[in-house]
């Protein structure tokens, strides 16, 4: 282990790596409750099958990251991407979940190819930096809105477009859970999101929100995943390309942003911010995504919660191995995770929105050619209830406002290509 993971070289020990791996799992294991709740709302995608796919995909992606890149970064189906999969692609655009899985699968295949030829890094550099940050912020608002709506905290029952509903039942439990989660996070309690979910689930029992079935047992054999349920019939349409590109776009920047943040915190990146073994790290993300789609879940990506493990001392892929082993162990605890009601996962969704909101501080709103496209991308996502529309209108606004002001040099060739594709989308519907 010393030679392979370079423990001494990175100033760590086996004990530190084990503690870090457990810490990372506790920080991100809420995905085992949240992801089946989101994707499981789609008819034909049983929550227990999604749970199996979530745990297996997380373990596979994290193990590849550990052994190929030797980084303390864990992967799992990403927040935001699962919401886009469910609420935009399936419920909004009317695609079947099989077609959505096909888009995720093809995205992963393309990622693997691009990772080998170093194209992914080139695409990242071609997209405006401020717009990347705006996408994260918009997704955060979108996720928070989903959490509020799923718990019944906001609705249109007040007669307005949207407003606060009566705080009772699931809505009241969700608000209590959000307060608990905020308090735990402010007190810097490790695994605050997961602990918040657990406490909210327990609080929901006397409110009749959490339903414990008779003869409940927390341990069971894993359900069969939705293996290779693909539908390639729509892949040659412009509409499908928009779906594919949105998965692609969000995953690229979510992964790269997470890798930059985690490696910087761990002191592993150089003075210019270059990520060690970045090619292998991006490949791990791509392999995880392909495996996840084949098993029946949305895009797998690097989790920013890995920073919790880094804070606990994690510096190598050994901590990722530990995290992956805990995801495999969780396969046999599906009934326990699936007991969690929507009112208990809603605070997690809302709070993840807060975490993603931090990117707004890095956006240059003083320059209208930067600020206006970012503003449009941010507001369109929650208001149109679509991550895809936010990205489309953000790119369109960026090209138009810079072209009108004569700043053609700011617009890359790739951005122009996207602009044309997105314009054609309106005429080819």
TrEMBL record:
Pfam families: Xan_ur_permease
Membrane spanning stretches: 20-38, 50-75, 95-119, 131-149, 161-186, 193-212, 325-355, 375-399, 411-428
InterPro entries according to UniProt: Azg-like (IPR045018), Azg-like_bact_archaea (IPR026033), NCS2 (IPR006043)
Cellular compartments annotated: Cell membrane
Keyword Thylakoid attributed: no
Topology term for the membrane: Multi-pass membrane protein
Keywords attached to this entry: Cell membrane, Membrane, Transmembrane, Transmembrane helix, Transport
Lineage top rank: taxon: Bacteria
GO cellular component: plasma membrane
GO MF entries: purine nucleobase transmembrane transporter activity
Broad class of where this protein is predominantly found: membrane
Family, per entry: Belongs to the nucleobase:cation symporter-2 (NCS2) (TC 2.A.40) family. Azg-like subfamily.
Name of protein: Xanthine/uracil/vitamin C permease
Originating organism: Treponema brennaborense (strain DSM 12168 / CIP 105900 / DD5/3)
């Amino acid at each position: 282990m010393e030679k392979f993971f370079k423990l001494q070289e990175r100033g760590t020990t086996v004990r530190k790596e084990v503690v870090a791996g457990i810490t990372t799992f506790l920080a991100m294991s809420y995905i085992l409750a949240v992801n089946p709740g989101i994707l499981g709302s789609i008819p034909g995608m049983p929550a227990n099958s999604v749970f199996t796919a979530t745990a297996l995909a997380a373990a596979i992606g994290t193990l590849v990251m550990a052994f190929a890149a030797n980084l303390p970064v864990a992967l799992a189906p990403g927040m935001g991407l699962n919401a886009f999969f469910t609420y935009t692609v399936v419920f909004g655009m009317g695609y079947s979940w099989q077609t959505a899985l096909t888009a995720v699968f093809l995205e992963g295949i393309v990622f693997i190819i691009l990772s080998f030829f170093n194209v992914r890094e080139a695409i990242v550099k071609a997209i405006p930096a401020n717009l990347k940050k705006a996408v994260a912020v918009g997704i955060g608002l979108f996720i928070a809105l989903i959490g509020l709506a799923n718990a019944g905290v906001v609705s249109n029952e007040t007669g307005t477009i949207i407003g606060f509903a009566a705080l009772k039942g699931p809505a009241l439990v969700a608000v209590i859970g959000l307060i608990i989660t905020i308090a735990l996070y402010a007190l810097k309690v490790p695994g605050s999101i997961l602990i918040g979910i657990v406490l909210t689930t327990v609080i929901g029992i006397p409110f009749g929100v959490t339903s414990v079935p008779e003869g409940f047992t927390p341990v069971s054999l894993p359900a069969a995943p939705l293996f290779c349920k693909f539908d390639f019939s729509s892949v040659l349409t412009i509409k499908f390309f928009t779906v594919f590109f949105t998965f692609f776009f969000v995953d690229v920047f979510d992964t790269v942003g997470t890798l930059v943040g985690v490696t910087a915190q761990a002191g592993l990146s150089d003075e210019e911010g270059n990520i060690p073994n970045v090619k292998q790290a991006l490949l791990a993300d791509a392999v995880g995504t392909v495996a996840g789609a084949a098993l029946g879940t949305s895009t797998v990506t690097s989790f920013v919660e890995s920073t919790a493990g880094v804070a606990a001392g994690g510096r190598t892929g050994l901590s990722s191995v530990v995290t992956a082993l805990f995801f495999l162990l969780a396969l046999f605890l599906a009934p326990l995770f699936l007991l969690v009601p929507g009112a208990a996962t809603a605070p997690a969704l809302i709070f993840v929105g807060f975490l993603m909101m931090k990117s707004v501080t890095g956006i240059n709103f003083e320059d209208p050619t930067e600020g206006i496209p970012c503003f449009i991308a941010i507001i369109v996502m929650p208001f149109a209830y679509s991550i895809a529309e936010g990205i489309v209108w953000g790119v369109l606004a960026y090209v138009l406002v810079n072209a009108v002001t004569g700043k053609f040099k700011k617009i890359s060739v790739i951005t122009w290509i996207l602009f044309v594709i997105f314009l054609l989308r309106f005429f080819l519907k």
